[in-house]
Specification:
61% of the residues lie in helices and 9% in strands. By secondary structure, it is α+β, with helices and mostly antiparallel strands.
Length: 342
């Protein structure tokens, strides 16, 4: 059951262009929001500008992560470099915490020492334009992240959308201050926005940790795996030790396929080739590992968990007998190799 592993028909499309787009947007909006703060003196607009600075750092980290993740598997990283995207998402979540902390710090100071706002109309117009830039980039990144299954792009899009919400809250606050004259409303709204940003940060960090902990594929993906296996289940074909995880854009699925011990190697090989092909077609970007075992051998059921069970000595001769029962005298087929990624 050896043989070379076929190369994927096409490599994943480069995603770094989206990170460059995010970097450009961060530079533009950072300058625009800083200008709006200088014009109005609003701490809300200052907090908005500070978050854009954090966006710039996060976008640079995203660029690095996407560059590393695009590298092909090598001897030191046999499963690819996709997990670096979870590190990037964790950094994004941490950056969101930093942005929220800066906003709260500035807002509390302004809450204690209110300052009259100036040139509110011009400042708001500049801030609206900056928010529109972030919204457009966040929409592009969110769609690309979902299409290419990139947690880095999804995290950066979420980060930019928190910036949009921040801008929205600040615009409302500054406008209401201009109408009502209640200066403390500006920092109060800024604190509320910061709390909302903290929630987004927590969600990103949790998702990053889940990926680093090799969490199983989402329920909808596992349902697809089950549906494919159901096509092959029969009285003489069974499955166990089905495991899954994901690393960035790449999914991994492994399983043991139990077939009659009387099957020859070629028959078992043909079955798992079809199975692996169907799984890759149903879940693009999936690497499948299969391990063939004889259905009649008790030892085949001793390795369903991560740690193999110890069998009584009496099972040894049974296993040898099962291996000798092959029609051509060869041992029962055993297989453990990765399929070609799609």
């Amino acid at each position: 059951m050896g043989g070379s592993i076929a190369r994927p028909a096409s490599a994943p499309p480069p995603l770094t262009r989206y990170a460059w787009l995010s970097i450009a947007a961060a530079l533009v909006t950072m300058g625009m929001k800083a200008l709006a703060f200088l014009i109005t003196g609003s701490v809300g607009l200052l907090s908005d500008a500070l978050e854009s600075t954090v966006n710039l750092v996060a976008a640079i980290v995203a660029l690095w992560a996407l560059t590393v993740a695009s590298r092909p598997a090598d001897e030191s990283h046999a499963y690819g470099h996709g997990k670096v995207e979870y590190f990037s998402a964790g950094v994004e979540g941490t950056m969101i915490f930093v942005a929220a902390t800066l906003i709260i710090w500035s807002a509390v100071d302004r809450l204690l020492h209110p300052v009259e706002l100036e040139n509110v109309g011009i400042g708001l117009a500049v801030s609206v334009a900056a928010a529109a830039v972030n919204f457009a980039v966040a929409t592009v990144e969110r769609r690309a992240g979902k299409r290419h299954r990139s947690i880095t792009l999804e995290a950066d899009a979420k980060h930019l959308m928190t910036d949009v919400w921040t801008s929205g809250g600040v615009l409302v606050a500054v406008g209401m201050v201009a109408v009502t004259g209640w200066l403390r409303l500006d920092p109060i709204i800024a604190i509320v926005v910061a709390i909302n940003i903290l929630v987004s940060g927590v969600m990103l960090i949790r998702r990053s940790a889940a990926g680093l902990m090799d969490t199983a594929l989402p329920a909808e993906d596992l349902a697809v795996v089950e549906e494919v296996m159901d096509r092959y289940r029969a009285a003489d074909v069974q499955f166990h030790a089905v495991r899954s995880r994901e690393a960035g854009q790449r999914r991994f699925v492994s399983m043991h396929v139990l077939v009659p011990g009387a099957w020859d190697v070629q028959q078992a090989h043909n079955l798992v080739e079809r199975l692996e092909a169907d799984l890759r077609a149903a879940l693009p970007g999936t690497t499948v590992f299969t391990h063939v075992e004889p259905l009649e051998d008790p030892a085949s059921f001793a390795d369903e968990g991560l740690d193999r069970l110890s069998l009584p000595p009496s099972h040894g001769p049974d296993r040898r007998a099962a291996r000798r029962s092959e029609p051509d005298g060869r041992p029962a087929p055993r297989r453990d190799r990765p399929s070609a990624p799609s």
